[in-house]
Amino acid sequence: MTDFMTKYFWWLPFGSVPELNAEELARVVNKRSRKAPQLLDVRTVQEWNQGHIKNSLNVPIGALKAQIKALPFDKSQPVYAICRSAHRSIPAVRLLQLAGYRDVKQLEGGMTAWERRGFPVRSSR
Fold first, then answer.
1. How distant, in Å, are the alpha carbons of 45, 54, 66, 67, 91 from that of 63?
2. d(CA 102, CA 50)
3. Domain architecture of the chain: domains with CATH
4. 3-state class of 2 per DSSP?
5. pLDDT per residue over 42-96, tens digit each?
6. Which of the 8 DSSP states describes residue 21?
7. β-sheet bridge partners, residue 82
8. Are 54 and 120 a contacting pair, CB within 8 Å?
9. Is the pLDDT of residue 1 over 80?
10. CA separation for the pair 74, 88 (Å, rounded)
11. Which pLDDT value is given to residue 34?
12. Mind listing the pLDDT tens digit for each residue in 29-56?
């Protein structure tokens, strides 16, 4: 997507953005490090409560633009956007890029792919 398209049509839920697959994200999540990875889950609160990746922050995509400046993330470190099937995370990646985040990727296939591979989820129920 061109800079013009990204700036004015960031909200489109299709197109190409950087991504990583579930196995790659599992390696990031399981890596022993002082700092937990920056995981942004843009699903609804109800979806997130049903099951999410450990240490993920839930900000529904509809609220992300208004809350992006308050995110507790380091813009110089990778951020991984997560949704159910990798449609809502596309605009999330674009918004984060527009806000100055340098390394943003979406989870390819979303939580559907994560769960299909049997990776752990936490429930807030």
1. 11, 21, 6, 6, 12
2. 30
3. 22-116 (3.40.250.10)
4. coil
5. 999 999 999 999 999 999 999 999 999 999 999 999 999 999 999 999 999 999 9
6. -
7. 41
8. yes
9. no
10. 22
11. 77
12. 999 877 889 999 999 999 999 999 999 9
Closest by CA position to 116, among listed 21, 20, 16, 31: 21
- Residue 15: per-residue pLDDT: 76
Say how far apart CA 58 and CA 43 lie, in whole Å: 7
User: Which one-letter DSSP state was computed for residue 121?
Assistant: -
What string of DSSP letters covers 57-117? EE--HHHHHHHGGG----TTS-EEEE-SSSSTHHHHHHHHHHTT-SSEEEETTHHHHHHHT
- Secondary structure (3-state) at 43: coil
Residues with a known catalytic role: 83
Closest C-alpha to 78, from 16, 112, 36 = 36
Token pair for residue 118?
């049997």
Query: What's the mean pLDDT in 11-36?
Result: 87
Decide if pLDDT at 105 tops 90. yes
Question: At which residue do the structure tokens 């956007």 appear?
Answer: 81
